[in-house]
Structures are given as C-alpha cells and as structure tokens.
C-alpha cells in the first residue's frame, strides 16, 4: 500500500473541522467500528483545538498505516512552540482545552491504542495518536515515518514501505529524482518492487527495482532487514542516508553510487550491523539535512518512532525538496513514557 500522508496547517478554528473530516475519510479505508470512528474524530478535534489555542506553526499529519490485516489511523500533531513545561500535568484528566468534546490530552491518550508525546520548551511539541483495527501486529517492531512533498507540489517524489514477516521486518525509503509527478511515478515503482520482494537478496531486489524503474527518472533507494535478534542487513544505492542511533553514538550506514532505473552495479553490497538497545534505525531522503542531531532533545531517542520522525522533520527539513524520514525501533510503544 502506498502511504499517503496528508498535512493540514492548523492555525484557526475552521481548520479543526477540516482535520476531523479528513480523518473520517481515512477511517473509511479501515475496518473500524462506529465507536472507534467516533474516538478518532474526538482525538482529531482535541489535537487540532490544542494547536489553535496554544501553539504556533501547528500542523496535523494524517495517514493510514497498514501491515497485512493490521492497520492504524495515525494522527501526528506537530508545532513550533511554545512547548509544555509540565507534560505530566497536561496529561491528567481535568486539564482540558475549554469547549472541546473530550478532556484534553488525557482523553487523547485514553482513546489511543498507541500514544506518545515529546515537548521541549521553546522548540515545540509533537504528539502521536494511533487508532488501530482489532487485528494485533505480528512482531515487536515499531515504525514511524513522515513523508512530505516539495512545497507547492500535490504529490510526493519520495516514498517509504515496511513489511513484517515472522520475527523480522524489511523497510525501505525511495527518492525519485527531482520532485513532482514524474518523481512520484519513480518512487511508486520502487515501492511496488519492494512490495513484490521485500526479503529478496540484495542482487535480486535491486535488479527487480532497476527493471521496474526503467524508462522513469530513476530513484535513490535503500533497504534494511532487521531481525528480532537485533541483526541488521543494510544496502542502498544513491543518496538515501541511513544511521543506527544510540545514546552514545550515531553510526552512518553505507550506500553505493548509482541511480536505480538508470545505472547500477550488478553487485550490491550488504552491510551487517547490530541494532543498538536502546536505539533506532533512521533512514531519510536528502530533503532532510544531514546535520540532524538528538542532542537538543533530551529523551527523544526513547520516544515513539513517529514522534522522533515528527521532531526531526520539523527542525531539519531543507524545504527545497521532497522530504522523508523513517524511524524503526525494536520495541512497540503502546503507551506514553514521559
């Protein structure tokens, strides 16, 4: 499934209804009960209202995430300040934004299957809420991603995918050359090749992707396979950046020169690594600056991957290209840790 993330700026009350209607349309694609659809509408209203009343540069990022029979509605609230000085107090029932149908962030947390928040005074707040179908995920991995088009474009020339199988997960990020509709075609072709053979050997996978993208603009492409044991197999062609990040260090992951669909080597090297614990795998297109850092954000590394992706995309996006950042952690965070 091609992930489609909708970004809605939220600065006045009229946009609260826009967010609520958008999440209702997305709910139509999932087998959610009427009560859960109602819960999603409340979450959308609460988060958007908080942005209008308390934040600057606020926006809601909405998407449907699917893994086989499992699926989630994801609501990611991102703002540029002022941030919360006491997150625990804001999560208490009774601490409510006046005039909303729920009970502030306490209600959002209670109605969510997955919820997390990170806030830095002066920098802003990112909140994730996921509303799930009844089918439980099959593995212990958590994936979060932000995928934004070049400013002014209606389609994104980047894409990402993830597929779980038993005790392992495969993830990929693709960046079609340039931006706009032709770049989006190349990215979708790369995504389709990944969905066809997500766990193939590197030679098989990249040759399949290369054939699929022939005649298109071509794309940069990287794939990682992570086992529950923590073993990571990473490979890439072009300028998708990969890193394994722990509290002690960030280790860059190597990719090879070339453009999938245009020119690649017949042999693609795979590099073996070990997932840090605690830590994350982070992959991003060149729409995100390589100078990102966790240092200004105490505790961010332990947050839900969607929150990590939201914070880093907010503060390190170049603004001159499509921008995608994907984060994988080795444990599923279904509740808040603050």
TrEMBL record:
<dbReference type="GO" id="GO:0004674">
    <property type="term" value="F:protein serine/threonine kinase activity"/>
</dbReference>
<dbReference type="Pfam" id="PF07228">
    <property type="entry name" value="SpoIIE"/>
</dbReference>
<dbReference type="InterPro" id="IPR036457">
    <property type="entry name" value="PPM-type-like_dom_sf"/>
</dbReference>
<dbReference type="Pfam" id="PF13581">
    <property type="entry name" value="HATPase_c_2"/>
</dbReference>
<dbReference type="InterPro" id="IPR039248">
    <property type="entry name" value="Ptase_RsbX"/>
</dbReference>
<dbReference type="InterPro" id="IPR003594">
    <property type="entry name" value="HATPase_dom"/>
</dbReference>
<protein>
    <submittedName>
        <fullName>Serine/threonine-protein kinase RsbT</fullName>
        <ecNumber>2.7.11.1</ecNumber>
    </submittedName>
</protein>
<dbReference type="InterPro" id="IPR036890">
    <property type="entry name" value="HATPase_C_sf"/>
</dbReference>
<feature type="domain" description="PPM-type phosphatase">
    <location>
        <begin position="138"/>
        <end position="330"/>
    </location>
</feature>
<dbReference type="InterPro" id="IPR001932">
    <property type="entry name" value="PPM-type_phosphatase-like_dom"/>
</dbReference>
<keyword id="KW-0808">Transferase</keyword>
<keyword id="KW-0418">Kinase</keyword>
């Amino acid at each position: 499934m091609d992930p489609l993330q909708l970004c809605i700026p939220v600065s006045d009350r009229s946009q609260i209804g826009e967010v609520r209607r958008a999440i209702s349309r997305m709910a139509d694609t999932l087998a959610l009960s009427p009560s859960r659809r109602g819960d999603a509408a409340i979450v959308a209203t609460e988060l958007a209202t908080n942005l209008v009343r308390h934040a600057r540069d606020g926006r809601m990022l909405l998407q449907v995430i699917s893994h086989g029979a499992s699926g989630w509605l994801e609501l990611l609230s991102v703002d540029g300040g002022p941030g919360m000085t006491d997150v625990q107090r804001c999560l208490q029932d009774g601490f409510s934004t006046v005039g909303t149908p729920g009970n502030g962030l306490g209600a959002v947390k209670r109605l969510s299957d997955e919820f997390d928040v990170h806030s830095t005074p002066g920098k802003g707040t990112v909140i994730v809420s996921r509303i799930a179908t009844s089918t439980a995920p099959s593995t212990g991995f958590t994936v979060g991603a932000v995928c934004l088009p070049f400013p002014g474009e209606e389609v994104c020339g980047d894409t990402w995918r993830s597929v779980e199988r038993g005790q392992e997960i495969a993830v990929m990020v693709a960046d079609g050359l340039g931006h706009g509709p032709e770049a989006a075609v190349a990215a979708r072709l790369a995504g389709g090749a990944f969905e066809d053979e997500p766990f193939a050997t590197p030679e098989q996978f990249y040759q399949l992707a290369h054939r699929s993208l022939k005649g298109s603009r071509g794309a940069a492409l990287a794939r990682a396979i992570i086992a529950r044991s923590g073993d990571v197999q990473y490979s890439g062609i072009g300028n998708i950046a990969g890193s394994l990040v722990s509290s002690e260090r960030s280790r860059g992951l190597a990719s090879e020169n070339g453009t999938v669909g245009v020119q690649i080597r017949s042999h693609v090297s795979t590099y073996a690594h070990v997932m840090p614990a605690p830590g994350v795998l982070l992959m991003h297109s060149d729409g995100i600056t390589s100078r990102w850092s966790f240092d200004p954000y105490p505790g961010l590394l332990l947050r839900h991957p969607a929150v990590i992706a939201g914070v880093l995309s907010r503060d390190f996006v170049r603004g001159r290209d499509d921008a995608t950042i994907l984060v994988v952690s080795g444990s599923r965070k279904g509740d808040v840790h603050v």
